[in-house]
Every structure is written in C-alpha cells, then in structure tokens.
Amino acid sequence: MKKLVLLGGGYGNMRVLLRLLPSNLPDDVEITLIDRIPFHSLKTEFYALAAGTISDQEVRVSFPEHDRLKLVSGEVSTIDRENKQVVLENGEAISYDDLVIGLGCEDKYHGVPGADEHTYSIQTIRKSRETYKTLCGLPSGSVVGIVGAGLSGIELASELRESRSDLTIKLFDRSPRILRDFPERLSNFVKKWFDTHNVEVVSSSNITKVEPHMLYNHEETIPVDAVVWTAGIQPVKPVRDLGGDTDSIGRVVLAPHHHLPTDEHVYVVGDCAALPYAPSAQLAEFQAEQIVQVLTAKWKGKELPETLPEIKLKGFLGSLGKKQGFAYLADRTVTGRIARLLKSGVLWMYKWHNG
C-alpha cells in the first residue's frame, strides 16, 4: 500500500482531499493527514475571530471521513527526507512514499526587538483566540496598535472597530499610502472608511522596537495597551530546516511539478511554496489541483508534461467590517456593499463544497 502523507490541514491539503476522496483515490493508496488540531480552520477569517465578531465554531470545517484516511493529531518536529519519515514532537515517526507539505507560515518579526515577546498574532486559531481574549478584555479607551497594513491588518482593524467602538485603533503602514500596489481608487476607499470610522492610519511608519506598553515608530514613542503583529510571514521551522534554495522571504523554491528539485516525492503547497504570487488560500487551492494531477499521473504510471499550465488567480476580496468591502478582480476595482457580499458568498460556497 502506497502512503501519501499530508502535513497540515490548511487550504491546500483540504483541496487535495476534496479531489481524491471519496472516489478518486487508487485502491493501493492510503492517506495520513497530520495536523495540530482535529479540524480544518478558515485562516482567512481569523481576523474576525480575534476581533470577537464571530464565534470559534464559524471558522471550523470538519475533515472528510474515509476508510483509507487516517487523521493524526500532533506537531511536526522534523521532516527526515533521507529515511522518508515525518517525526512528531512526541517522538512518533510516520513513514511516507509521497509527502505534501502544507504547514503554513508564522509571523516574521524582521529582527525588531521585542516584537516576538510583546505582540499578539492571528496566524493560528490558538493565537487568534488569545488575541481575542486580550483585545476584548481591554478597558474602554485603551489603545490598540496593529503593525502591518496588508489585507490581514486592514480587516482586523475594521472588524475590531465594529466590535469595540470604545477603543483607539492605530494601524501602522510602512507604505506612504494603504494598498499602494493597487489602484489609487481602492486605496482611497479604504482610507476614507478608516477616516470615517476613526481608525488612525500611520503611514510611512517604521516600527523599530516594541516594549510591553510602548511602540517605537522611527524616533517617536507611542503608548499602547496591546499590539497585534501582521507585518510579515515566514515558513514554519520544519520547512525552513528542509534546506535547498529559497526566495527572499524564505519560501521553498520548487521544480515545475511543485516538488523539491532534489526530491520528486516531497511537494510543498501554500504559504511555504516560492511562487510568483503573494500567499493566499486561492493560490494554495490552485496549486493543490496541480499536485493532485501530478500524483494521479505518477500512480497510473503516466509520463508527466514538462511544464504545468500557468496558475491564473482571480484577484482578491477584503472586508471592512460586516457591511463594506473591497475587491480587485480581473484588473477591476469593486468597492462597497457588493464587494462585501461577494466575499460572504465565496466563504459560504467554500463551506458548502467542503461539507
């Protein structure tokens, strides 16, 4: 029996399961899924969990059930490619014939002193719960700093404003204008929403130090009661320890068929893969579709094409609270209520397709 091992139950490996189960898995293949939690969690919605506007249950989706799918709860410690084993923190070793690594990412602090110790995170469901407990337990009038004005920072700031109208929220953006890589109309819409809802956007910021109740922006000191870090990501340590070539943010450089250039049995999907796009759930799912095609061809003994079709992303969707949103789709900007309804619809469809 061939052993396909999936590390991480994120968007990429959920798509692998969706395509292979229940009826497309060859009779001589069994799957082991290893994850630290016993369900798939919707990382794109962690900002709302941290802000307290949705419940924990709303960001959970059950893994599929199948007689040749084994779920293992545990934390991955080491990927031993020489012996084709995955070693967990409890010492258990799980063998594989083919391995798909979808362990996701963690915060990257860029060497900023105190950032690791004195900031909160929304990278995992556990950390998002901890962030929720802190943010929603703050006294009225407290100051919350959100470092990083990418999609996660924008959505967290807007959702927290709807959850806690009594807080002072400061969103620190390294760029001179918010979402600077996208049309100015999009930037202006988001900035106007923040101005209207009394969220301060601190442009051209450079956080150089974090203390328990103080942020250092350039030479300025800013008193804060809590800080959430959304200013960069990097692959988790077991992936960083794989060796081989990486891109500028530490993602693993892959061969055209999404496996390691030196190991055709080890695939990397999602946030850890060095692809010419920003990490996203959409990208992980497109990549997973191609990995399934490659695995299926290999299992059937078919010859693989030299290259795979170029991945073409549809754009992105973002929310500004529960009633407004923004989107960039097919080089077109959509803002307001329609964009928010689109995002809600995509989320509903995702849950529906995943049972």
UniProtKB/TrEMBL annotation:
A family per Pfam: Pyr_redox_2
Cofactor names: FAD
FAD/NAD(P)-binding domain location: 3-282
Gene Ontology BP term (one): aerobic electron transport chain
Oxidoreductase as UniProt keyword: yes
InterPro entries xrefs: FAD/NAD-bd_sf (IPR036188), FAD/NAD-binding_dom (IPR023753), NADH-Q_oxidoreductase (IPR051169)
GO molecular function, one term: NAD(P)H dehydrogenase (quinone) activity
Family: Belongs to the NADH dehydrogenase family.
Full protein name: NAD(P)/FAD-dependent oxidoreductase
Species of provenance: Paenisporosarcina cavernae
Lineage of origin: Bacteria, Bacillati, Bacillota, Bacilli, Bacillales
